[in-house]
Recover the amino acids of this structure.
């Protein structure tokens, strides 16, 4: 493993700070280029020639897979994932005792994050309320908001650095929080929970970084895939609202319904059977029978929650640092294969 790269990512994680404007712009611009040029062997293009909405690894050599739930400005969570030494048997024998980052360096593991990089939520409720007071007084970059953005942008920078270095093995799906412009349309909606978080982030970015950084981050968001499919599992940010077809998923960016239906679905908001239909269309009926659908979006109590007759597994818990370990050729068991990285 490159000691310089190891030092770089740990320096990023050590003390969250606002990234330098020029370096941040260059990193985001490079990330957009990487996303735009992803290999068609696993990311088939949409009908308009742009990168499609599906990452499909079913025809490529199988690798162990780490699925990461919503990050929400938790720099420490991603750092702990990269430093995590998986349990015996997950990685190849020659990598026994190696960390996830070391396995990434050797091209021996894949990572898929289900989305939602920005907006610390419940753990930062008081900070958001303090920043909201400033915002209503016309202060867009006050102390509380800067602390929020130091965490969020440090994480975003780290995600982009990893994507650029491990372009074919490190992947980040679009979540409902990947909307830096806080726009409405194309399947996106303005976000607010404790305050007016989406608008507050957009105004902060405009004031502190300007149009150029805002634009290039938005470009990255618009190039993100929405679904990943592997032998044994399908992944998206949220529960599919209905049984989208492969064609619809590849061309997702042309349909606001599909984008919203993979990123904003509330509990009990999906059509029963939607998960089964998506898996059968992507994997085939026989393979889907022994596969699972993994997602985050709505927080769950405990380790995981089951929906859609047990086919859909939600495993986003804001108080835990859990990941899902999917081993090639093994049926996923949420009791043993969802593990803590700390």
């Amino acid at each position: 493993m490159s000691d310089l790269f190891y030092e770089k990512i740990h320096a990023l994680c050590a003390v969250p700070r606002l990234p330098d404007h020029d370096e941040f712009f260059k990193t985001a611009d490079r990330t957009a280029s990487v996303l735009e040029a992803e290999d068609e062997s696993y990311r088939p293009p949409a009908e308009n020639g742009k990168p499609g909405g599906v990452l499909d690894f079913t025809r490529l050599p199988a690798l162990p897979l780490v699925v990461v739930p919503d990050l929400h400005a938790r720099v420490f969570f991603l750092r702990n994932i990269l430093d995590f030494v998986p349990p015996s048997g997950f990685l190849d024998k020659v990598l026994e005792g190696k960390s996830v980052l070391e396995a990434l360096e050797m091209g021996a593991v894949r990572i898929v994050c289900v989305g939602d990089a920005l907006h610390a939520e419940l753990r930062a409720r008081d900070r958001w309320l303090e920043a909201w007071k400033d915002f209503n007084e016309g202060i867009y970059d006050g102390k509380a908001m800067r602390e929020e953005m130091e965490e969020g942008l440090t994480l975003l920078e780290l995600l982009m650095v990893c994507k650029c270095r491990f372009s074919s093995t490190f992947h980040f799906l679009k979540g409902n929080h990947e909307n830096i412009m806080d726009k409405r349309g194309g399947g996106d909606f303005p976000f607010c929970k404790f305050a007016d978080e989406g608008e507050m982030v957009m105004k902060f970015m405009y004031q502190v970084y300007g149009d150029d950084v805002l634009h290039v981050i938005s470009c990255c968001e618009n190039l993100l895939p929405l679904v990943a499919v592997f032998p044994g599992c399908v992944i998206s940010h949220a529960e599919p609202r209905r049984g989208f077809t492969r064609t619809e998923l590849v061309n997702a960016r042309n349909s606001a319904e599909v984008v919203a239906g993979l990123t904003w679905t509330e509990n009990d908001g999906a059509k029963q059977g939607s998960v089964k239909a998506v898996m059968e269309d992507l994997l085939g009926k026989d393979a889907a029978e022994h596969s699972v659908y993994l997602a985050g979006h709505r927080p769950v109590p405990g380790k995981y929650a089951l929906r859609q007759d047990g086919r859909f597994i939600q495993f986003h818990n804001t108080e835990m640092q859990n990941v899902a370990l999917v081993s090639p050729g093994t049926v996923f068991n949420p009791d043993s294969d969802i593990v803590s990285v700390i």
